[in-house]
Backbone:
């Protein structure tokens, strides 16, 4: 009578148990209710109610096709790799909810040749340079002196500020910019004309870290909610 090698038997059961555990774990992590275990970190301020699919759309093709395409790319049989699992998040994902006609610094503007040198220092062609997700913050870039990359030659005609913009630039007081100005220009508020009346930098930092908005809650345009964003996708 044929006898099964005890070592082979243990290997078989070990492999079977491993497959069952792996399959169960994969199924569990695929559930919408398990998103908290898959996420790289907490959602940023204002994104608390969003689900993963709001930003991470399924990649084209099924799992087998994605594996095959990337294997062919690795072996030099295919020029480009493909997204695996989900598509990469780009500025277009953000603009789906936050596209505003009044944006003072829209990402597309920085694709112009005149900003080539500036974008080599700070890549403002994409939102995630300043707003990296899963950090539990509103703005993740530090320090807040990024205006220096484009506004070195700033001149304001009939400058109303008690300390002129030209003087602030000459003194390299770049952190004062955001103490007066909302970067995207979406808040409705009165810009101070005296430096002593500007928002303290510590208060600004609390806001950037996800705290209370010192510019106020009155905004010209609001971002879409997840249900509104999904409806927009369905119409496309």
Residues:
């Amino acid at each position: 009578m044929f006898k099964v090698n005890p070592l082979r038997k243990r290997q078989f059961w070990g492999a079977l148990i491993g497959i069952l555990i792996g399959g169960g774990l994969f199924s569990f992590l695929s559930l919408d209710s398990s998103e908290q275990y898959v996420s790289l970190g907490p959602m940023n301020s204002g994104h608390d109610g969003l689900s993963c699919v709001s930003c991470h759309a399924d990649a084209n093709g099924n799992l087998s096709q994605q594996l095959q395409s990337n294997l062919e790319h690795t072996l030099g049989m295919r020029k480009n790799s493909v997204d695996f699992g989900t598509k990469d998040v780009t500025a277009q994902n953000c603009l789906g909810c936050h596209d505003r006609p009044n944006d003072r610094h829209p990402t597309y503007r920085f694709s112009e040749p005149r900003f080539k040198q500036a974008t080599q220092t700070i890549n403002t062609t994409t939102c995630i340079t300043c707003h990296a997700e899963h950090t539990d913050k509103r703005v993740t870039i530090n320090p807040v002196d990024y205006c220096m990359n484009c506004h070195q030659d700033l001149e304001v005609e009939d400058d109303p500020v008690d300390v002129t913009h030209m003087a602030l630039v000459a003194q390299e007081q770049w952190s004062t910019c955001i103490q007066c100005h909302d970067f995207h220009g979406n808040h409705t508020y009165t810009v101070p004309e005296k430096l002593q009346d500007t928002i303290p930098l510590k208060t600004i930092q609390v806001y950037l870290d996800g705290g209370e908005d010192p510019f106020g809650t009155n905004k010209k345009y609001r971002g879409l909610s997840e249900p509104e964003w999904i409806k927009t996708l369905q119409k496309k």
Observations:
- Residues 29 and 38 are 7 Å apart (CA to CA).
